[in-house]
Fold this sequence. Notes:
mainly alpha
Amino acid sequence: xxxxxxxxxxxxxxxxxxxxxxxxxxxxxxxxxxxxxxxxxxxxxxxxxxxxxxxxxxxxxx
Length: 62
């Protein structure tokens, strides 16, 4: 149940409701990964590089 809630939270995009120039509109240009296993860090980095979200990277690293 908790995993489903986390995955569904990643589907919602609040930026769709905001227009460029309004307060609260933020675009990111960098990402970071913090894991114990070096291979997991590479997989998570690749997920972010492919255009994935932080949730995608977390799932890939797990």
